[in-house]
TrEMBL record:
It is found in: Cell membrane. It is a peripheral membrane protein. Its main location: membrane. Belongs to the ATPase epsilon chain family. Keywords: ATP synthesis, Cell membrane, CF(1), Hydrogen ion transport, Hydrolase, Ion transport, Membrane, Transport. One of its GO terms (molecular function) is ATP binding. Pfam families: ATP-synt_DE_N (PF02823). NCBIfam families: ATP_synt_epsi (TIGR01216), PRK13442.1 (NF009977). This is ATP synthase epsilon chain. The keyword Cell inner membrane does not apply.
């Protein structure tokens, strides 16, 4: 079975890497599902979205919140380069809820909604709805 070689990185660290059956990413133009044999693409990630990865070993899907960044697909290799990234399994849900509450309270200060989008994405990645 063909697989994808996937790397999800942020400036601080490599967040996840390995073989995958599929990757789903939200771009500024819409959602994109990536499977082996996908045509080469360079895309811009939607800030405050969730990237989902289906590991090739049959394990549970991996979800990660991503800040702005981009991804590239070439020769069954997917590189996701995000300004900020956090695995759903690492999200402190109580902290993410506090961040969302703060973002909603300070809506005027966060005019572009970045803090709110990222807090909501952290909760979605952790499997908790905002």
């Amino acid at each position: 079975m063909a697989t994808l070689k996937v790397g999800l990185v942020s400036p601080e660290r490599e967040v996840w890497s390995g073989e995958a059956k599929m990757v789903v990413a939200q771009t500024i133009e819409g959602q994109l599902g990536i499977m082996p044999g996908h045509a080469p693409v360079l895309g811009v990630l939607l800030d405050g979205s969730v990237v989902k990865i289906e590991p090739a070993d049959g394990g549970e899907w991996v979800s990660a919140m991503v800040g702005s960044g981009f991804f590239s697909i070439a020769d069954d290799e997917v590189s996701v380069l995000a300004e900020q990234a956090e695995l759903g399994s690492e999200v402190d849900v109580a902290d993410a809820r506090r961040a969302l509450d703060e973002a909603l309270t300070a809506a005027g200060a966060d005019q572009d909604g970045t803090a709110e989008r990222r807090a909501r994405a952290r909760l979605r990645a952790a499997g908790s709805e905002a």
